[in-house]
Fold these 2 entries.
Entry 1:
Amino acid sequence: MCGFFPRYACHKPALMTDELFKSFLQEWDNELLFQNRKILLLVDTCQAHLTGAYLTNIELAFMPPNTTVLQPCEQGIAQMVKATFRYVNRSDLYSE
């Protein structure tokens, strides 16, 4: 995401909701449009990922069910991304 960190949002009872995911995708799509970039985003078949968002610069490709080997969350990447996000946001707060 090359320096682009979307705003942080959460939903306590769930990791992701369809509204949060759609909002995230639309925000990222706008940033990619501004940068004149297009991407292919691999997602699993989680119910929250089945969004009807209209995207111009992001193409969603759904992985087959039970492909946990390829899922970043299964590899501990989600914790790393969250930790990096929090570190960057705290650094920004202290530098202002």
Entry 2:
Amino acid sequence: MNKLLLKISLKSRKKKYEQFMEIMKPKKDSSILDVGFSESEYMEGANYLEKYYPYPEQITALGINKPVKFLERYPKVKQLSTMEEYFLSMINLSTYAGQMLYWSMSEIENFNCSLYKK
């Protein structure tokens, strides 16, 4: 990938992360779902949340790849490799921030209630 595109991508991911932290204000006990982890980190911005979030043990990463290197790099992050695994083990979903779709699982009740009240 072109160096300029890599710089732009990294800047974009950083901004999305900052917006997520500012809007969601996750706490130490907040659970977070990162939809779309990357097994191969071909660029610095890959798996940005796992690299910089201060409480990696609160992250569940969801993806379609087998997480061999991912689990070596981020041993504290819980990982699911299929949607079926996710829905069987975690029923909580909520709000997302940016393209990486960080879901704050602590907001599920408010989200579901607003859907069913209409």
